[in-house]
Amino acid sequence: MGFFLEKKKTLLYKNSILTNKLLLIVFLLSVTFMNRDLLIGNVNTLLLLIICMALLFTRKSNPFMAGMFFAVAILFKPYFLIVILPLLGNKKMKTLISIFLCVLLFSIIPLLFTGWSGGIQLYQDWFAAIMEHSNYIVSPFTFDSLLIKYFFPSSTINFTNYAIILIVSVYVIFKLFLKLK
Fold first, then answer.
1. Quick one: CA dihedral 42, 45, 47, 50, positive or negative?
2. CA quadruple 125, 127, 130, 135: dihedral positive or negative?
3. What is the pTM (predicted TM-score) of this model?
4. CA 90, 92, 97: angle at the middle one, nearest 5?
5. What is the largest CA-CA distance in the chain?
6. Is 151 in contact with 137 (CB distance < 8 Å)?
7. pLDDT tens digits, one per residue of 145-163
């Protein structure tokens, strides 16, 4: 936590013993929840750690390590591809190249064990599993349900609706990046 506070001389920054005690208390209170998540197969807590490590290495100007951690997170959950937008906005090209190369390298590693045809089958099965994930969940709080409710109440969601939302979101994000500079 100390590296987040290096610019502002706050009470926590000045008193590292207090900071360490607070971090220890937070960790001890959250261990039960992290353990339960890992036991039921959730990797979200580990991915949060991986993303934090990637951000730490980005901040320390170590683009290879940052790219490696970002690549691992992207391969576990492809929605972390959204991380690319802020990196593009801040012109972190070395980190982006490192992400691309590490994703490529980590994607090739299974081919060494399964062979070319086995690897292609493995990736086809992986993409099919990703596409089918959560299709069985019927809830008013799924992404599709929320999009229909707030943006397209009179129709069902389709690819065009997703494309419109994606284009508008990317436009707004890039406008914000340009305004911040």
1. negative
2. negative
3. 0.60
4. 145
5. 59
6. no
7. 776 777 766 666 566 767 7
